[in-house]
Design goal:
The structure holds three protein chains of three kinds. Chain A is mainly alpha-helical. Chain A is built from 30 helices and four strands. In chain A, the strands form two sheets. In chain A, strands 1-2 form a two-stranded antiparallel sheet. Chain A has a two-stranded antiparallel sheet with strand order 3-4. In chain A, strand 3 and strand 4 form a beta hairpin. Chain B is mainly α. Chain B has one domain: Four Helix Bundle (Hemerythrin (Met), subunit A) (Up-down Bundle), CATH 1.20.120. Chain B contains seven helices and no strands. The longest helix of chain B is centred in the first third of the chain and has 26 residues. By secondary structure, chain C is an all-alpha fold. Chain C has one domain: Helix Hairpins (Orthogonal Bundle). Helices cover 72% and strands 0% of the residues of chain C. In chain C, helix 3 runs antiparallel to helix 4. Chain C is elongated, with a radius of gyration of 19 Å. Chain C starts with a helix and ends in a 13-residue tail after the last helix. Classes of the chains: A mainly alpha, B mainly alpha, C mainly alpha.
Chain lengths: 661, 182, 116
């Protein structure tokens, strides 16, 4: 292996630069100049992006072509020292998926920063926006580079917090406030599972670790991914005869960790926060709720994949939930009118795709692992582009409702072209990026013998094409349906340039040989190229979806209305997102609030606060009474003095007398 | 028989006078009358000194205490123009507290004194030459001498005199301008 | 009569009871008087009682040197007490005069600046 270059040993610079920029922008520049703050934040992230590309280049040339890429921790620092053989480090883990995600995050983040300088122009809180974007970028990079579960958990919470800040960016809007709270509470609830998972696996891993011979430890720590994913460690963990509710330790911790990932990646039934998160500024949706943060859950499962694979049952859970979410979200996506919400459900659906791709993978059939990461990579680009395009449209039309748009093809030719590229990419049309990654996923599902999942995948592929082209036709074709749509103008070049860059990436990302680079350690897979048995039906289904969309939405609304009438109740249910928000509201309000929270609140208000108030009252009254002694009257003081002196003499006399006797 | 009875009689007489006058000092509503009573108490004390075979101290008591200090106090009364004012009686609470503390003190000392420590003491021998002995003791620099305290007390008197003048004089215009009020 | 009186010859205890009674009366005045000059007078009562005590103890308890000079520490102390009392009255009087000039009163119950 070639010696490590500067950037490989100093990978911490990549997250450190956005962090410094966050502090500088948030604390200093914000009060100096809004424009300067935006420019500085953008420049900082661009620097990180440059370093990431450099790092990726050096990383790919570490080993001769054709050999599997290494996984190494070139820099780490002891952070928490609990005892001699248990310490938590912070460090930078470099392996194919972390380097890939590093590049994706910094690139998309840079483009979104540039786009935002145009999109957010003149908004109040412009500098605050960039400060939080920088904070998010730092947290996400720290998460990606985490070499152990604890650093990942810390950064995991940090991305959750910055997501909260950014969803609630328009905090004067009640809907934005409640959306940010919803996102934070739901993901935080899921993170509780993650934390429990860390504790469970950390406890048992530490036991195994402590029982190991020092030469087997390899300088690792119990919570390091490198330790937790070692075959011998996993074998010992799986062999433990400890059960909770009939579930083994390994499966239990894997499922708990997956809960955290499912919360962040908005898997069913924790998906409810993502559509509401669209209350944030559109570039934020592009960066956080499409390209980067929501894939953290997928990344987490990929990072811990050997744990899931050894457990087997946990992987089945991942697969089922992924496939169901994918289908469920696609159905809802066909019925929504808010352009950003359609994209949000599309994101859900694609995340489900990635999850079930991981779920169908195993050490025997590792293709799903590579395919999932490949889809993560391509999806980041075309979904970010879709959101930025939607943002551009919203910027021009001042509405999120697709039925207020229409005919924008003529007014916004560049946006239209780029949006079309992204739509074709997500629909899986050759030769755009989505085709390749989707093809890989479907091939993985088929070849690992999960036929049902393969069928669901095919169906979802067709539905994706349908609902994406539905919003495409309604937005860009037909007649303008509102005053604003008539007078829409093309967005400024500072917004179009990042979109163009993403457009290029969406078009060519499929030719980047990610599956060759990203392979499950210890289970190399020959890149099979395009599997025609999969590619042909999926392309046909996608074309059918597009055709159906054209048929229904290319012209007037009459055909749609007729269809809606025929579908009746099912349509209404899907349009209302199958009433999951209402269900959660019922559970939280009518059950948890009334029977759990209210009694606890009563107890807190009356018993706990009562005790506190009582002690406060006692102290205050005692103080008042003691304060009365402080009359300022010399004679009162003299009385006390003499009384005290008398008392002292009496006591002394008594003591001396009894001592004398 | 009678020779030993007369001092006893005088003692009780002086004791009665001083206690009565002391009571009027602390309770009298007219401050000037209280000052005169104080003068009487101090004079009775001079008599007590004589009974204790200390004629020099009796003279000092009359000269300094009665003649100096009480006159000074009377001046204070005059200068603060409270002569004609009837002083209000102290509040009930203050009376109760004051008498409780004073009674407590008295009872404490009474029990201490009537316990066996002092009971059986008799008079020691008479000093040979009162004035000369005190004078020697005050100026002696030896083992039982008081030369240093004597000098310290003289300094104290000087300081008190200057201090009294500085505190009591009317603030001049200059001093007022120099010292900001407040 | 004379015999009765001879039987009542004051001992040290009688003297001490007298002085502590005087002291207690002074104490009472100190704690109850409203006029500052009255407080000072009560203080003089206490000082005087203490001064008498010095002479008293000197007279009854001082060791008489065998063939040496008489010890007169108590008497000397009384002189010091009188001197200190004089100094105290001077300063006290000056303070009262200044206080009167400032506040037009020498009522100690109305002076409560210590409270602040």
């Amino acid at each position: 292996m070639a010696p490590l270059s500067f950037i490989l040993t100093h990978a911490w610079l990549i997250p450190a630069i956005p962090l410094l920029s966050f502090l500088l922008v948030g604390l200093v520049l914000r009060n100096v100049s809004q424009r300067l703050a935006g420019a500085f934040g953008t420049l900082a992230v661009a620097t990180s992006a440059g370093l990431s590309w450099l790092l990726a280049w050096d990383f790919l040339h570490l080993v001769p072509h054709g050999q599997p890429l290494p996984s190494l921790v070139p820099w780490s620092l002891e952070w928490l020292h609990f005892q001699d053989n248990f310490a938590i480090h912070i460090g930078t883990l470099l392996d194919p998926i972390s380097v890939m995600l590093l590049v994706v995050v910094t690139t998309v983040s840079t483009l979104v920063h540039i786009y935002s300088t145009g999109y957010m122009h003149g908004e109040p809180g412009y500098a605050r926006y960039f400060a939080f974007l920088n904070l998010f970028t730092f947290s996400m990079l720290g998460l990606v580079l985490a070499p152990n579960l604890v650093q990942m958990y810390v950064c995991w919470e940090l991305v959750g917090a910055s997501s909260f800040f950014l969803i609630g960016f328009y905090f004067e809007k009640p809907s934005a406030v409640s959306a940010s709270k919803k996102a934070f509470i739901v993901t935080r609830f899921a993170d509780l599972g993650f934390l429990l998972g860390i504790l469970v696996i950390g406890f048992y891993a530490f036991q195994i670790y402590g029982g190991m011979k020092p030469e087997l430890l390899n300088g690792q720590q119990p919570l390091d991914f490198a330790f937790l994913t070692r075959p011998d460690v996993l074998a010992s963990l799986a062999g433990l005869d400890v059960h909770f509710l009939g579930v083994g330790v390994l499966t239990l911790s894997a499922v708990l960790i997956y809960t955290g990932g499912a919360g962040k990646s908005a898997m069913f039934p924790l998906h409810i926060w993502l559509p509401d998160a669209m209350e944030g500024p559109t570039p934020v949706s592009a960066l956080i709720h499409a390209a980067t943060m929501v894939v953290a859950g997928v990344y987490l499962v990929a990072r811990c994949f050997p744990i899931f694979a050894t457990s087997g049952e946990a992987l089945t859970v991942v697969m089922c939930i992924g496939a169901f979410t994918s289908l469920f979200a696609a159905v809802i996506g066909c019925t929504q009118d808010d352009i950003k919400r359609v994209l949000a459900f599309s994101t859900l659906s694609q995340l489900g795709y990635m999850m079930f791709a991981l779920g169908v993978a195993s050490f025997a059939h590792p293709l799903g692992y590579s395919a999932s990461m490949f889809h993560l990579f391509t999806h980041a680009f075309f979904k970010a582009l879709l959101f930025l395009g939607a943002g551009s449209v919203i910027h021009a039309v001042h509405s999120n409702d697709i039925w207020h748009m229409g005919g924008l093809r003529k007014h916004m030719p560049f946006t239209h072209g780029l949006f079309l590229i992204a739509t074709l990419a997500i629909a899986g049309i050759y030769p755009l990026a989505g085709f390749f990654s989707k093809d890989e996923i479907l091939a993985a599902a088929l070849h690992s013998g999960h036929t049902v999942v393969f069928g669901v995948g095919l169906l979802v592929a067709g539905m994706t094409a349908f609902y994406m082209f539905r919003i495409y036709f309604v937005t860009f074709w037909g007649e303008p349906k509102s005053e604003h749509a008539h007078h829409a103008h093309e967005s400024p070049w500072i917004m179009l340039a990042p979109m163009a860059f993403l457009g290029v990436l969406s078009a060519v990302a499929g030719f980047i040989p990610i599956p060759e680079w990203v392979q499950l350690p210890g289970a190399p897979v020959e890149h099979e190229g395009i599997d025609l048995a999969v590619a042909i039906p999926s392309t046909i289904l996608a074309l059918c979806g597009i055709g159906l969309a054209w048929l229904l939405y290319g012209g007037s609304r009459e055909r749609v209305d007729a269809l809606v009438l025929k579908l009746g109740g099912f349509y209404t249910a899907a349009r209302n997102k199958f009433y999951f928000d209402e269900l959660y509201l019922f559970v939280t309000h009518s059950v948890i609030f009334r029977f759990v929270a209210q009694p606890i609140a009563w107890f807190d208000r009356n018993i706990v606060d009562g005790a506190v108030n009582l002690s406060g009252w006692f102290t205050r009254t005692a103080g008042l009474l003691l304060g009365k002694l402080q009359t300022g009257q010399v004679q009162t003081y003299a009385s006390w003095l003499v009384s005290g002196a008398i008392a002292v003499v009496v006591v002394l006399w008594g003591v001396l007398k009894s001592g004398g006797n | 028989m009678l020779a030993s009875a007369i001092p006893t009689l005088i003692f009780y007489l002086l004791a009665a006078i001083s206690l009565t006058l002391a009571w009027s000092v602390v309770t009298g509503r007219r401050i000037l009358r209280a000052a005169v009573s104080l003068m009487g108490v101090l004079g009775a004390s001079a008599g007590l000194y004589l009974l204790l075979d200390s004629p020099f101290l009796a003279g000092v008591q009359v000269l300094v205490y009665v003649g100096g200090i009480v006159v000074l106090l009377v001046f204070a009364v005059m200068l603060t123009r409270t002569t004609e004012l009837l002083e209000d009686h102290p509040t009930r609470l203050r009376q109760i507290v004051g008498s409780a503390v004073a009674t407590g003190f008295f009872l404490l000392s009474y029990f201490m004194m009537t316990s066996d420590v002092f009971a059986s003491r008799t008079l020691s021998a008479l000093p040979k030459n009162d004035v000369a002995a005190i004078g020697r003791a005050l100026l002696d620099t030896g083992e039982h001498g008081y030369a240093l305290p004597f000098e310290v007390v003289s300094l104290l008197l000087l300081a008190a005199m200057i201090g009294g003048i500085v505190i009591a004089r009317k603030p001049t215009a200059l001093a007022k301008s120099e010292v900001p009020h407040g | 009569m004379a015999e009765f009186l001879a039987g009542c010859t004051p001992t040290l205890t009688h003297w001490l009871i007298l002085t502590s009674a005087l002291f207690s009366i002074g104490l009472y005045g100190m704690l109850t008087r409203r006029n500052a000059v009255g407080v000072l007078m009560s203080l003089e009562l206490c000082l005087n009682a203490a001064a008498v005590n010095f002479v008293l103890f000197n007279r009854y308890l001082a060791p008489t040197a065998q063939g040496g000079a008489e010890r007169l520490d108590g008497a000397v102390m009384t002189i010091f007490v009188i001197a200190v009392a004089a100094a105290e009255v001077v300063v006290g009087m000056a303070i009262f005069v200044a206080m009167y000039a400032e506040r037009r009163t020498v009522d100690v119950t109305r002076l409560d600046a210590l409270k602040d």
